[in-house]
Each structure stands twice: as structure tokens, then as C-alpha cells.
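Continuing from the previous page of notes. For each protein in this section, the sequence appears first, followed by its C-alpha cells. Read the first protein now.
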Amino acid sequence: MKSLFEKVWQKHIVQQIPDGPSVLYIDRHFIHEVTSPQAFAGLEKRGLKVFRPKQIVATADHNVPTLDQHLPIKEELSRLQVEALTKNCANHGVELYGLGHPYQGIVHVIGPELGVTQPGMTIVCGDSHTSTHGAFGAIAFGIGTSEVEMVMATQCLLQSKPKLMRINIEGELNKGVVSKDIILYIISKISASGATGYFVEYAGSTIRGLSMEARMTICNMSIEMGARGGMIAPDETTYAYLKGKAMAPKGEEWDKALVEWKKLYSDTDAKFDREINIDAATIEPMITYGTNPGMGVGVTGHLPETNEIIESERPSYLKSIQYMNLGAGTKIKGRKVDYVFIGSCTNSRMEDLRMVASFVKGKQKAKDVEVWIVPGSRQVELQAREEGLDKIFEAAGFQLRQPGCSACLGMNEDKIPAGKYCISTSNRNFEGRQGPNARTFLASPLTAAVAAITGEVSDVRDWL
């Protein structure tokens, strides 16, 4: 009578504090340059070394430029943070996939593609989108800098058990609808705080029919509805994806791992604190219009009228659409777009790039739109070039850049100018997220691709 979450959680309890949190063992700890310097400094202040450096994977992603990565980083703070990561990893014996390394990339892209991320693990990182790794049937969640230090020192973490939610999605998706639309639809229905306090399991025939990369997109944005994390039970799709990956088990170890992985599912009589059922046929291509990911509508829809918003939420709604320079009740389709960003830990994998390339092949971008395609890792970039996707993008007027978090967040050189509209495949649309006073529409790679061609928010179904 256990859920998938409970099976993994219970296996990792080192000690249960009476009427308190659990001491949880952590299998894998991912770190990057932004949330690790203070943790390393805290260890050194106490005269401690990293307890289990072999269980840490480090990469540079948030602050890195996505052009001319062989040159010194221009932005001083970015350069200092990347240099600190390099020094700290060398001092503590932590493997670093820094700039120029064949495995460098966004932390939540390289973990799965290298086979570091595996079913049944507990995984943490000082980054909220660690929930991505839950697509493999792992308990994966973001932690704060003091917790990063705690894991470095002990390989354990104090955690209170969250409530459990299951979201069942059944049926066939309509044409033009992809996994990003599924998660934007869910968040628009339950709000950006609708899963606060919960760990979510995604289930149902629609989820089982998705590729691993599509599942990662869904789990990635669990955090955007307030959840602690999201997970999907591993199955044949999961095992096929992992088999042969650089750091996945091999030979007899693989056979042994598979036996354990096949036990990772929610029992038929498992209890959840909340269940939500969704018919896949009701989902259309989605887009956000406001300044949190819950402010989303179908691409043919319109913004809510002010009187449709709960009275207590009206001031923030009006502030949000004022920032976006949109009017209550207006349609979103046809809005002009200045930039298109295809990338981030949500949508920068090979499947995303192939999806965009197959749509834009033989087409030209709108002349007044700037389009950035930023692969999630060095491996994705090289694969894209091997498959000739770079030529397709180039012919369409798109720029294929080098791997990094890029315009997902205004923490590097790839910022959207003030007042400009960007249709983005990233995960957050907060005020100033992509640069001071930049305006963000979140959408799927397909909806972003069609906007790049038309120069405005468009319905990809009109083109399929």
C-alpha cells in the first residue's frame, strides 16, 4: 500500500526524529557556480572537507556566456563565480565539467544524459529545477545554500515528509500539443501555488506514452505550481533511455539495478492526499500572459476580464498585465514578439531542437525577430551539428549558440532588452527574469518556433 514516493523515501531514512523531520541519505548531489561558493566557504571555516566527493557532480551553467566560450568571461561577477567553482572543486576533489569539457552543460540536462540520474535515487542541487530528475522515478528537489553545505559535510539532509498528490492524465494529445503544454495547462488550472506542500506523481496513459525528454519537461516545472518536486514511475522507456549511458550501470550491475528499478511504482491501493484527473484531449497549445507561470491560457484564448479574477487577487493581476502592457480580456494571439529563446533546463534537449528544426526547415524567421537556440549541453550541441540542425537553423536565420542557462535568467550576458517581448521555452516569467523590464511569454518549442517565423504569437496548429 505504498506510493512510488514512499518506497524511495523510506529506503533513504537514516534516522527518524520523533515528531520531527527525517535524516535522509542523499545519493547524488549536483552543484553549480551560483549556490556552491558559500557552502564551500562554510565547510572551510569549520575545517571540514567534503564528506563524499565522488557523489557530487559539478558543472558551470548559470553564469557562462553562450558565445566565444574559449575567451575569458566578460561579466566580472560571472567570471568570479565560475573561477570560485573551479578552485573549490580542485581543493575538495570534486569532478567538475567546466567550460571546454565535453560533458559541460546545464546541470539538469547533463545528469540524465550521462546516466548519473537513475531510478530510486535521492537527488539534490542548490537549484529549484532539480525536480527535473524525478522523471526517472527519483526523489529530486532543490535545496538552499545552507543545505548544500549540510549535504557536502554529511551526505545527509534533514527533511520533513511532504503531502502526496497524483495527477492522472489520460488519452491522446491533440496535434501541436507537447509536454510543455501539458504542464503549463496543469499550472494554469491549479495556480502557481496549487501544489504547495506536496510532492507530485504524474501518471496515466498520456504520461506513459511520453519520451524521457518530454517527461523531464513536465517534472522540471513541478516547482512552478509550488510543489516540492515531481516524479514519474520508471518503465521500459526509462530503461531504454539509460542503457549504455556513460555512467549507467553495466553488465551484471545493470541486471541487478533493473530488478530494483522494476519495483518502483505506486501500488494500486496507494493513498494520495489529493488526486487530479485530466483528459488529454482538453489541452491545446498553451502560452503565459502574466508574471507567474500560472497565468496561462490556450493560444487562441484571451486574458481574463478583471471581474473574473478573485477580488483579493485583482491588484496583483492588474499589476502583472500592466507590466506586460496587455489589457484585461484581450486576445493573446497576434501579439508581436521581438525575441525567441529556445533553451533552458526545460526545453534544450535533442528532442526539443529536432522538433524546432523539423518545423522551421525551409522557412525564414520574421525579419524583426532575434532567435537564439541554446543547447542544454556540449553533447546536445555536438549532436545537433552532426545531424545538420545547425544548417537548418542558420538557413532560417536562427542563431545556434553554445550551452548554458542563457536567457532563462538575467544572470549572464544573454539578456532580453527592457520592454521587449520574448517568447521563451524556459520555466519562469517573473518581472525582470530575462533582464530588467523584459517581458516573457512561456510556451512550448513548437509555439516558440512558429512565433519566430510569423513574428507574433501564433497557433502552430494552423501550420501543421
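Done with the first. The second protein uses the same format. Note its length before scrolling.
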Amino acid sequence: MLFNQLGLSAELLRAVEEQGYSEATPIQHKAIPLILDGKDVLAGAQTGTGKTAAFTLPLLQRLNKKSNGPRCIRALILTPTRELAAQVHESVRTYGKQRPLRSMEIYGGVSARPQISKIHRGVDVVIATPGRLLDHVRQGNINLSGVEMFILDEADRMLDMGFIRDIKQIIKELPKKRQNLLFSATFSQEIRDLAKGLLNNHVEIEVAQRNSTADRVEQLVMPVDKARKRELLSEQIGKGNWRQVLVFTRTKHGANRLAKQLNGDGIETLAIHGGKGQGARTKALSDFKAGKIRVLVATDIAARGLDIDKLPHVVNYELPHVAEDYIHRIGRTARAGHDGTAISLVCVDELKLLKDIEKLLGSEIKKEYVSGYDVDKRIRAEPINKGKSPRGGGPRPSGGRPGARSKARTGAKSRAGKNARNTKRSRPRAQAS
């Protein structure tokens, strides 16, 4: 279906055309008319299906009707990560450049003062991550009582990251009369429970089978010994003259180490993860999109929501612990009708993880054995550490709130102090100096 058949205004159609689009994706032609009609919607769509435009375009049209009284926040979009918030904000600005609407991002990792200043000057659309937004609510910096449209984007990931309490607290700050949209890649029971308490007489739409992968992604598994993964990756990048590659690791430490090794191989590489400042993450992504670097190494949390046009290659340097995360990872390529390749470098330790992924997909992934990288069958599988990495690359404490982090730090300090005292008591005198 064409965009000009969906009921969008001439201004928005021009903005869409300027971006090179004329035909709507399935999620867009199903969702846009419903949202324009004021319906609450529960939408199931994988990443790369055009879901951001599916809600930003009708949101901009509905907000075009002037509200009475002073400027206030009329639309709130919640996203699980900073990167996704930035992507959605860019979509709002791109499609709404002819509209007299003000929009802003709100997320952590940066100073709160500029955000407060912008809020006080007046804003119509806020795109935020739950934690920092709730901080502003608790400090009295922001008023959400005028919100007309509330959107939860990638709700399944929000629940995975422990944001459910924050979301429920934010919902309490919203007016009862509003339009609600919930977008999720999967419809788990938790998602349906959340929808039941949030949506009113909603319409449910789904455009892809549950946990399905993009049809245009060519998936390959390259069996290789763990010690030779980096060597194989460097060879594939050079031999194939890959110019833009997104590589996934499980931990921050692993991302930093791989980036350093690839740079040592003469391949321009940067790493992004939760341990990097927002400025560094934004610059790394900008340089990657601009072609200034060939490889971006990322952890799952940092890469969630990255929108990179025509990204040709995604590499799973390490398979994820959770099979569903594989879907999200490879969804970074083959977006908006483009083709892409997802390659997984799999060692003996990860065969169980691979089986879980293939079970989720309902089929085996094609294996490609690279000459010169025969797997040493004498090597036995070792357990994969699911906790913290040696340098703090582990998962965020449940719920992600400051209290949980402070308790974890207190416990760690206590254990460290005890260990230090024990070491000191047992150390021979001759070595004390």
C-alpha cells in the first residue's frame, strides 16, 4: 500500500517522499490508519519493519491540532535505551520539520541541567528512557498531566531490562484520558498483562510470526576454535572488503579487547557499551554511519535500537546467552527492504547456545567451514560465565535502580575488605615490603 492511501497530510507525505519512501511497510499500513483514528493499539513487529515511522507519522498529524492554553507535553514516548531514544527523536524531527512542534530526548549518562532548561522552555513531544524520566518526575522538573498520546516502544526489551516498576510509576503521572500505543517484538504473557492494564478497547495487530527473523537476512554459522575467532574475523573483513560491520560481544571487557585487537590488525574499530559515556557512544555511532570506521563492536544493551541504513554485515563474535537476543542482533541488518548477512563465529563452548537459537527459529542455520580453520576436536567445551566479566562487564542489577547498584557496591567493598585483611594476615614478613 502507498503512503498516500493512509490518510496522512500533504506535509507529512512530502517529508516521507524526501526520505525516498513511497510504499508503506505492513506495520505502517496496518497501524497508521488505526492511530489516526484515535484507537489504542497493541502492535507486534520485529526491528527493521518500519515501526518507528508507524507511530511517529500519525503522532505528528494528531498533534497538529492546536491545544488550548500554554505549551505542555502532549506526547510521551518511552524507549529502553538511549540509542533508541535518539533514533526515535531523529524520526520525529525528520518527519515533523514543517510542524510547529518542539521535541526533546531525556536519558541518563548526560547532565540533567540542559534537560531541565529545555523542559521549562516548553516542549510538545518527549522521547525518554524510564530511569531518567522518573528522576525528573520525582524532583518536580516535569509535568505529564497534559499527555494526549503515550507510546511504549520495544516493550518486551523494557521488561527484560527490569523497567516494569518505573513504567508503572510513570503511568500513574499520566492523565486517565489519553491514547496508548504499545509496540513489542514478542507477545509474552507479561506483555499481555501490561497491555491489559494500559490499553482501552485496543486493536491488536501483528505483522510477523513470533520470534521470526527478517526474510532478507542470510544467516551463516562459521565453526571455529575460540582462540582463533579474532583471526578469522579479521580475515573475513579483509578478504571480503567489508566496509561496515557491526560485531556483537557478550561483555564490555570483551568489546574493548576485540576493538583493540582489530585496530592492531589495521582495521579501524570502535567499541560501544554501557561503560562508555553518552558522548563517546554517540560519536562512535556517528563515525560508523559516516564510514569513518569499518567496525563497531557492541554489547546487546548498547546496540538495541541502533538504526543504520543499509548495514550489510552483522557478526555474532559471541552468541548471546538468551536466544531471543539473537533475533534482535541480526535485525540490525536487512532493514527497510535491504539485504544483509548475519555471521556467527561459534566455538565448542557455544554449541548449546546455538541449539537454543535454532530451536527458537525452528530450523538449522547453514554451516560454512572456512579452509584453514578446522575445529580442533580435542578441545572440550567449557562453561560460559553468565555473571560479571573480569572487568565489570556483567549484567545490570535487577530493576536497574540506584538502590540495587549501591547495595551491590557495598557488598563488593565488604568482601574486598575482608579478603584484603585475610591476605595481609597470611602474607610472609619477607614479602611485606
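What the second structure shows: Residues 402-426 form the longest helix (25 residues). The chain has two domains: 3-206, 217-367. We return to this in next week's lecture.
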